[in-house]
Write a structure and sequence with these properties.
Largest sheet: none
Number of helices: 11
Order of helices and strands: HHHHHHHHHHH
Helix content: over 70%
Radius of gyration: 18 Å
Shape: globular
Oligomer: single chain
Distance between the termini: 38 Å
Strand content: under 5%
Number of strands: 0
Structural class: mainly alpha
Length: about 270
Amino acid sequence: MRLDKPIGVFLLLWPALWSLWIAGNGKPDLLISMVIVAGVIVMRSAGCVINDYADREFDPHVERTRLRPIAAGEIAPNQALLFFLLLILLAFDLTLLLNALTILLSVIGAFLAASYPFMKRYTHLPQAYLGIAFGWAVPMSFAAQTGQVPAVAWWLFLAVVLWALIYDTLYAMVDRDDDVKVGVKSTAILFGRHVRSVVAGLQALMLLVLGWVGIQAGLGSAYYAGLSVGAGCFVWQQYLVRDEEKSACFRAFLHNNWFGAAVFAGLAVDALL
């Protein structure tokens, strides 16, 4: 479940919180918020388990992943698969506390979570698929809070897909050499020597989309101040990866937590004002 490495929880949680605050006009329903947060933790945990199951033949050959439980022989693949199914059932039980539309969307979310780890075998864009899987928290949060998924939710969904392309490409840069050897595909490999420029373009595009979300949702200056801080986070990430050194790329990946926090802080302050 990798609960000792909560960065994945945060990267999934921030878009859910952005959505709840926009959908709830700064005052989301407490029960809905609690269910969404719990669902984020459970689904990220399930995603880690099925990812390790899917990569059980690759992980022993990659330096960063060779000590994961299945790769190291500490847990049998069938045990992991059963545990994944139990986590999915727990997540589905949580959605039963919400409305019918959210329950329906959760079925799609479960499919996305279960299928994502296998995409790196077939496409150089598994990061985009991860963005769809992580971004699905956006329509689910809007549906839970308002009973519908308005246009602004899909714009925010697009922003989250772009964000995943950004941070997961930085993450993939860490494993790029090993991935080439074992035949795993990624955007870090696809973009090649242009990877930093492409990530910079994606960062600029994401900021534009989030700006449009602010206009559509009628948000105020505090939100845009949060976006400005987020832009500073992106500049810092570009500085970190200037030499494409592995540990620096990983630090840039982790730094996206602060981007998510900056955007949420802008939303929260805007609601208070």
